[in-house]
Amino acid sequence: MVDGSSRKRTVRGRKIRADRERKESRRARKKLARTASKVTASERTGDRPLESPDEVRPEPFVETDAVVEVRDRIDGWLEAAQPVHLIGPTGCGKTALALSAAAQRGRPVVWLNGDDAVDTAALVGAHAGGERYEEHDRFVGGVNKKTQIVRERWVDNPLSVAVGEGATLVYNEFSRSNPAAHNVLLSVFEEGVLERPGKRGEDRTIDVHPEFRAIVTSNDVEYAGVHRQQDALLDRFVGVHVGYYDGETEGEIVRAHVDLSDESVEAVVETTRTLREELEIVVGTRAAITAAKGLAVFDDDDDGGQFDDDLLAEVFTDVLSPKTASEDAESIDELRSTITEAV
């Protein structure tokens, strides 16, 4: 009669190893789940992590009565839990206003810049590869048994992070993105829920945090590259039009960016405002700042910052020539002539 004790020991040994492998596999899955649940904010947002108010506060930022009046309107609408749409010509300071208002809230800020490449996934998130966990079993000498566990990794993008964390979303150049990408905003503003297409399970949707707010900026509709957004979405915004400020405010803005004499700043601002009336192209406050920077470089006279009209005309020609319809010599000469007359 053959003794079966060695066989029983072998079978029991296999059973023990199998039980241990199952336990190790369960531990590995739990460890992977714990790791996935501890993803940091910066990992969730990819290239756009949550930023503190002090990090986004624009510097320098001029706070004249005209500027504060507009920002107070924005602050009021945000306090009323209304998403704000800042609309106005390029170079008038919409982005600085949006960031200043966002910083004023004292909540984290998420920044997003719009363009044609922005789609729904770029707003809410997408799967970004997988996480692999591997266990090596060397219980039996000379045998290396590997157990691999693969779990898909989801990365939240700006909108998901902002609604989940109660941050202020600053969506710059909002109207340059395709309107289809913004369908997800309808349920956010109307129902307080964000749906994340492509996400499975119970966390497919996110309840919007009560402190979430949105500020978007757009150029006027006649600008190239601007998309007309759907009326159903625009109906959920309040629109604040941002135009060019008065001469005093524009002067303070230029002084905050460039170290020039008062006479030079006044000449730059006056020329900017004149050209704004004379030319068909956009001559924003940004153009005044750039022209002032040019004067600071090219004016090498030792007469206390004074300069001649020819220099001022040449600087403004350089600043504005990229905006002409064509850049041939004739169009540049025509622009220079108009600027010289204005100066």
Automatic annotation (TrEMBL):
Coiled-coil region: none
Alphabetized GO MF terms: ATP binding; ATP hydrolysis activity
Cellular component, GO annotation: cytoplasm; gas vesicle
Region (Disordered): 1-57
Catalyzed chemical reaction(s): ATP + H2O = ADP + phosphate + H(+)
Compartments it resides in: Cytoplasm; Gas vesicle
Record's keyword annotation contains Hydrolase: yes
CDD domains: AAA
Gene3D superfamilies, alphabetized: P-loop containing nucleotide triphosphate hydrolases
Pfam families: AAA_5
Superkingdom: Archaea
Bias (Basic and acidic residues): 44-57
PANTHER family found in the cross-reference section: MAGNESIUM-CHELATASE SUBUNIT CHLD, MOXR FAMILY PROTEIN
NCBIfam families membership: gas_vesic_GvpN
Similarity annotation: Belongs to the CbbQ/NirQ/NorQ/GpvN family.
Identification of the protein by name: Gas vesicle protein GvpN
Organism name: Natrarchaeobius halalkaliphilus
